[in-house]
Design a protein that fits this description.
Elements lengths: L1 E17 L2 E14 L2 H4 L10 H12 L5 E8 L2 H15 L26 H12 L6 H11 L6 H11 L6 H11 L6 H13 L9 E5 L5 E5 L2 H7 L4 H10 L12 E4 L2
Antiparallel strand pairs: 1-2, 1-3, 4-5, 4-6
């Protein structure tokens, strides 16, 4: 027996009407499955690839709440449940398309249960990949020219930086950089900027994790890929705040007094 299901956010109560169906809490995810698929998202080691749903579920767990979930329809044939999944997603709308509250990445209807590529299909994929010709110098130059002037946002830069962490540079590359810096003197202004950066600007690796920042008044700030900007917004010292993650105790003195931070994931 196959079915379609919905996850609701218990923090957002109200009247949510969508054509022939209505909810008392905001819908956040539509799916289809069978057996225990309905509750599988709740486990930390779930194979679900939807990072936005995982983030919401972790946040609810941190706040001591449970998501509300229910079956919308049941079907004998899997194709019928796939069609219903497409119908519900289209009806309610997706966040990434700015048509609704759902965190679904697609319009639904993908993923046949238990499907596995046959040995023959796998071999065809391998052969097709092998037949790809290497790019010529002209093709590379053409692509390079197209990318000239292309703007890369700060979030993408941080992702690139994180992907390069731990990669060792060649000795020749290091030597070239050292030679360029020999005899180069930093101005007083540059030194001051570097000093301020070390004291206040966060290590952007922290933005790869999910934190909850808590003020002395117990106001909570959900920090997901924006930890650095929230730290700067409240004029806090990064190192003092990060120390509270280890001690689980608020800062005892200074301008961060009373503030603390908890790592969610």
């Amino acid at each position: 027996m196959y079915y379609t299901y919905v996850y609701l956010d218990p923090r957002k109560s109200g009247e949510y009407k969508y054509a022939e169906i209505s909810f008392t809490y905001e819908p956040i995810y539509i799916g289809k499955g069978r057996d225990n698929r309905l509750t599988r998202h709740l486990y930390e080691n779930s194979k679900s690839s939807n990072i936005h749903l995982k983030r919401i579920l972790r946040l609810l767990k941190f706040e001591g709440l449970q998501p509300i979930y229910m079956k919308l329809s049941t079907h004998e044939i899997e194709e019928e449940s796939l069609l219903q999944e497409i119908k519900w997603i289209k009806m309610i709308g997706r966040q990434n398309l700015k048509t609704g509250p759902l965190v679904n990445f697609t319009n639904g209807g993908e993923g046949i249960s238990g499907y596995k590529h046959t040995t023959e299909a796998k071999q065809k994929i391998i052969n097709a990949l092998k037949q790809r010709l290497p790019q010529s110098i002209e093709e590379r130059k053409s692509k390079s020219l197209k990318l000239m002037g292309h703007f890369v946002d700060a979030d993408t830069k941080r992702k690139i930086s994180a992907s390069l962490l731990g990669k060792k540079q060649k000795t020749e590359t290091i030597q070239k950089r050292v030679i360029k810096l020999i005899g180069k003197k930093r101005t007083t202004e540059t030194k001051k900027k570097m000093s301020l950066t070390a004291l206040n600007i966060p290590n952007w690796k922290s933005d790869l994790f999910h934190y909850m920042l808590i003020s002395p008044n117990n106001d909570k700030y959900d920090c997901y890929r924006n930890f650095g900007s929230i730290i700067k917004q409240h004029n806090l010292v990064y190192h003092s705040i990060m120390q509270t993650v280890k001690t689980n105790q608020p800062v005892k003195r200074g301008k961060c007094k009373g503030w603390r931070c908890v790592k969610i994931s």
